[in-house]
Structure formats: structure tokens, C-alpha cells
Amino acid sequence: MPVATGVAFGKTRTLLRLEGFAVLALSVVAYANWGAGWMAFAGFFLVPDLSMLGYSWGRRVGAAVYNAGHSYIGPIMLLTAGLFAAMPLATALALIWAAHIGLDRALGFGLKSSRGFRYTHLGTLGRPDAW
Questions:
Q1: Is 84 exposed, middle or buried (0-12, 13-18, 19+ CB in 10 A)?
Q2: What confidence tens digit (pLDDT) does each residue in 12-37 have?
Q3: What are the DSSP calls for 90-102, one per residue?
Q4: Which of 16, 51, 85, 87 could cross-link 69 (Cys pair, CB 3.0–4.6 Å)?
């Protein structure tokens, strides 16, 4: 079976999915200890998926917008700002955002390729004839 360039497979893919689970677990534990409410967690947990709206402008723009919303860079920057500037809301939102990305990665949803939504760095989503 040919492997697409830039796609993790085998033990590397498993390691990346375990890493996602670790980020999810750490983010949830940190959030629980931060003292923010669980209603906010539930309310904001799926907000990063709004980045899928970028696909309204085509695959290339969609992948770029989705990847911007699903890269750890954003939550790390927000978390850093929240902690150093004593902004509790920013810290809480960063932890929720990181938890969302961690869950996605643990489930095998990776960063998108401009080839289409189902092509990720963790492999192809769905059946070959789907989407």
C-alpha cells in the first residue's frame, strides 16, 4: 500500500495520537484546577471547529483556516499571554482550545492538506470513496 508524502503512519501515527490524548488530559486537569466553570468549557469546546467555514472559499483557504484553528501555536500563545498578563479568561480559553485540539488528534483528526478536508497529516479520513 503506497503511503502519501507527509502523512504519519504506524508507530509514528500512534505516538502522535497518544500525544493528543496527553494534551487533552493535561488541559482538562489544568482547567479543573484553574477554577473556571464547566459550562464555559462545554460552551467553548467546539468553537475551533468554526474554522471549517474556511472551506466555503475552497480547499486551499479552508485548509489554511482550519489548520490555523487546530495548531497548538494559537493556544500556546494565548496561554502564555493569559498567564503572564494575569488574564484568567484568556488562560481558560487557551486550555479549552488545547483540549479540543488534543481530542481531535487523539481521534485521528489531523491538520488538513489542501487536497481536501479528508486528507490529514495523520492519514486519510473515512472510506476511500467517501467525501
A1: exposed
A2: 878 888 999 999 999 999 999 987 89
A3: HHHHHHHHHHHHH
A4: 51
